[in-house]
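Lab notebook, design round three. We kept the backbone fixed and only want residue identities now. Task for the bench partner: fill in a sequence for the structure below.
Input structure tokens:
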């Protein structure tokens, strides 16, 4: 099983330590983040990424911020807390988990009332952020157990996109959780990981993580997925999610929509695995999900080498939206949700 812990409190309790995912697979570098500003920067630059992980880190960042300003007058302390909340939420606008986690801490602070001293508020927020981390670990395990039941008996042959693994969560991942549970149960597991252009989260992160855990993983270029499906090498596609709309439309790493179309064409079930905190009932459909647009130089100058003329415009959406009609099931910690997704997700 995977023993990765990409996010943790520093032993001193006054900082968060993360595994810098921009340095993988060449080096395992731990970063020490001591402020909400540092946390927001780490999220923006994708030193930490994955919807559940950035939610956990956002909560920890707000708790850190609160602890640093307990000596201020109560009104100013509350104002700084609200400002930090806005800063953190703005760091990655597409994913639902970041806002969900930070707002969970903000609501807790608001519920304590103005007469509660700042130190108590900060202590409560630290505890709540820790609970979010612990809950995420349990959530991953539950998704793995629910998801494994969808994969039938015998060998498991799955294609996944981007990284929705232990590096993207506090536990064993979302899309990878059924794979780790299958491995633990002694099932033969074969995974095809797409490279995931342009930042190569599949090749740099998923392939590294799964091979480190002893899972049989083969890296494929994104455009080879159709051939694998045509040739009968894939029994299911499992991906993560950054936001799930009330109707079951799913925002995930760009390229996910294409895979869902290919899977539907080839009669292969397409599954989405995500915590219930990724379900955003206030977003009616995928058309209402804001799509983050990244720096064109992530394509032009990916990893330091120019691969496109500097004067050519480049559009770099970080995510796309897969319609609910292409999804066979959404797996959360509460169970397996089948279409039509609306009523089921409302109770997730």
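Proposed sequence:
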């Amino acid at each position: 099983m995977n023993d990765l812990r990409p996010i943790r409190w520093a032993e001193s309790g006054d900082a968060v330590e993360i595994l810098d995912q921009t340095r993988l697979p060449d080096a395992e570098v731990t970063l020490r983040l001591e402020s909400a500003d540092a946390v927001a920067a780490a999220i923006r630059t994708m030193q930490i990424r994955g919807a559940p992980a950035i939610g956990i880190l956002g909560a920890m960042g707000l708790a850190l911020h609160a602890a640093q300003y307990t000596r201020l007058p109560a009104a100013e302390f509350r104002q700084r807390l609200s400002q930090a909340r806005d800063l953190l939420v703005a760091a990655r606008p597409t994913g639902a988990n970041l806002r969900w986690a930070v707002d969970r801490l903000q609501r807790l602070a608001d519920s304590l009332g103005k007469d509660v001293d700042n130190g108590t508020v900060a202590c409560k927020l630290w505890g709540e952020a820790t609970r979010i981390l612990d809950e995420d670990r349990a959530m991953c395990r539950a998704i793995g157990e629910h998801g494994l039941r969808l994969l039938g008996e015998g060998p498991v042959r799955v294609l996944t996109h981007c990284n929705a693994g232990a590096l993207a969560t506090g536990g064993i991942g979302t899309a990878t959780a059924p794979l780790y549970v299958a491995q633990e149960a002694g099932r033969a597991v074969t995974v095809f990981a797409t490279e995931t252009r342009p930042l190569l989260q599949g090749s740099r992160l998923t392939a590294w993580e799964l091979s480190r855990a002893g899972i049989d993983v083969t890296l494929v270029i994104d455009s080879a997925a159709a051939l694998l499906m045509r040739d009968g090498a894939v029994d299911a596609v499992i991906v993560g999610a950054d936001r799930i709309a009330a109707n079951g439309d799913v925002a995930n790493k760009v390229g996910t929509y294409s895979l869902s179309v290919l899977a539907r064409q080839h009669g292969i079930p397409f599954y989405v695995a995500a915590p219930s905190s990724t379900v955003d009932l206030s977003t009616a459909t995928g058309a209402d999900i804001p799509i983050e647009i990244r720096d064109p130089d992530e394509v032009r100058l990916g990893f330091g080498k120019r691969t496109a003329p500097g004067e050519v415009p480049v559009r770099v959406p970080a995510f796309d939206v897969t319609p609910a009609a292409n999804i066979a099931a959404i797996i959360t910690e509460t169970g397996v949700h089948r279409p039509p997704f609306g009523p089921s997700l409302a109770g997730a």
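Keep this in mind before ordering anything: The chain has two domains: 7-140, 143-346.
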